[in-house]
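Colleagues,

For the teaching module next term, I've prepared a clean inverse folding example: a structure given as tokens, and then the sequence designed for it. I'd like students to try predicting residues themselves before seeing the answer, so please don't circulate the second half yet.
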């Protein structure tokens, strides 16, 4: 019966041309939306969204530029204050009444600026593990990067640069124990070995664009020598002419590593 319903829904989605694939129960579904934006659905059906830069992101599929398309968001994670990570997060937090989880000092700036009500801006910091919804555990870990929040002051109509806290990566653990390491924007750093040993991620999401973050060679070293996940998806490339790293360079740099390299296509669901 369940299978029939899934077939019916799949048919309906194809007919309507909608991106509404139904996640398989018991699996983690990962949809890359360009840059560091992901929609991740847990085995229990919880929807986690990371770094939602969507409406102005050239790689985001058109259907996801409509913020209504998410249907629900249970956990909203923002790694730092740069616009290509936080851009649509306040609007999603408002729309889905979901707290915006980000470095505590970034949320302090968002609170004092009045970007969102304080109730939607809980504070946490590196080393903290939270259970934002039952069954999902999120830990903030180190990222080697920077963070500011550029805010358009409505009174002056000028941009102001505010403190953005220290950037973070996230360990996301699902109901079935599957763990994702979302690296955020980061350089290569030695404590990725600690992250690998302590959290044993099944899947790593790592930036490869270079210039602002690791390039393909550094990212491959991080994955093969330090993090050692079962699988990796490259992110944060293909949107900024300064960040020239490509998925092919990353695949080549990974060589014959036993880590499975998955080059995600924006909007296409992957199951783990
Ligand atoms: Zn950044």
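(Answer key — instructors only)
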């Amino acid at each position: 019966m369940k299978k029939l319903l899934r077939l019916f829904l799949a048919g309906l989605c194809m007919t309507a041309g909608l991106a509404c694939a139904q996640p398989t129960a018991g699996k983690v579904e990962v949809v890359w939306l360009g840059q560091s934006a992901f929609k991740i659905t847990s085995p229990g059906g919880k929807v986690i969204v990371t770094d939602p830069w969507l409406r102005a992101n050239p790689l985001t599929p058109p259907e996801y530029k409509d913020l209504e398309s998410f249907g629900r968001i249970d956990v909203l994670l923002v790694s730092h204050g740069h616009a290509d990570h936080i851009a649509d997060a306040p609007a999603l937090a408002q729309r889905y009444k979901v707290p915006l989880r980000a470095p505590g000092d970034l949320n302090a700036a968002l609170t004092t600026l009045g970007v969102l009500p304080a109730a939607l801006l809980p504070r946490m910091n590196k080393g903290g593990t939270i259970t934002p919804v039952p069954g999902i555990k999120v830990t903030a870990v180190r990222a080697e990067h920077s963070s500011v929040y550029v805010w358009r002051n409505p009174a002056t109509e000028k941009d102001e640069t505010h403190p953005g806290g220290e950037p973070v990566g996230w360990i996301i653990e699902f109901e079935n124990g599957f763990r994702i390491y979302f690296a955020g924007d980061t350089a290569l750093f030695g404590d990725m070995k600690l992250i690998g040993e302590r959290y044993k991620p099944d899947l790593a999401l790592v930036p490869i664009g270079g210039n602002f973050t690791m390039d393909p060679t550094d990212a491959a070293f991080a994955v093969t020598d330090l993090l050692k996940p079962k699988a990796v998806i490259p992110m944060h490339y293909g949107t900024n002419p300064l960040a020239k790293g490509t998925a092919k360079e990353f695949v080549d740099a990974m060589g014959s590593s036993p880590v499975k390299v998955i080059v995600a296509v924006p909007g296409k669901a992957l199951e783990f």
